[in-house]
Amino acid sequence: MSDSIVIIPTYNEKENIEKIIRKVFSLSFPYHILIIDDGSPDDTGAIVKSLQSEFDGQLYLEERTGKLGLGTAYIHGFKWCLEKNYAYIFEMDADFSHNPKDLIKLRQACVDGADLAIGSRYIKGVNVVNWPMKRVLISYFASGYVRLITGTEIRDATAGFICYKREVLKTIPLNKIKFVGYAFQIEMKFTAVKYGFKVVEVPIIFTDRTEGTSKMSTKIFREAFFGVIQMKISSWFRQYNK
Fold it and tell me: Mean pLDDT lowest for which of 123-132, 149-158, 186-195, 231-240?
């Protein structure tokens, strides 16, 4: 039994899913994996099912009907992992933009005292590969905008490569997390900071996907931009007690 599990949300990731699963299971530390698949029409879920007998007791699949959003996928996964008593719960993309080898560094940061470890693209300059300059600038300045509005010091507020200690996810009222797109990532970090948890950023190199299709959209960006202001205002009327 491992104390660590990696949640990977999927929608149409047939090109990547088997490769990312095998890569995680090849690491020196024995991580478990939970795939949250939103009814991928490309049979991503079927590929995962075909691997479960090979990785019995290590690979889990939760299938949902329809594309319900990144945030709700992670909330579903967090609750599942808490019920199974995992100590370290990770977020990671399926498309290799996050290097599975960095799971080791994120876990170690939490073992060494962090409550929440972020795989950060911007803690040491800009460490992004194969992104167009426009997207790099949007992402970089989005994190600056989040710091300005929220008052937090997190350099990569929209990062989706994260290790949580279970205490963080037990404390945050998950049913009250509002956002479902990339604003979800901002809201989770902001809420963790408000509860007084220790956040550490671990430098990583982010590499844009080479297979499959990005899920970024104007709607998702708009939610994040205006959501930060809503989130900050709401925090004025809320108590954060562990």
Answer: 123-132
- What are 149-203's pLDDT values in tens digits? 888 889 998 899 999 999 999 999 999 998 887 789 999 999 999 999 999 999 9
Structure tokens at 26: 């090849």
| CA distances in angstroms from 19 to 15, 36, 88, 194, listed in the order given | 8, 16, 23, 37
Work out the mean pLDDT of the chain and round it to a whole number: 89
- In order of their start, the domains of the chain are 4-235 (3.90.550.10)
- CA dist 23 → 4, 18, 173 (Å): 15, 9, 33
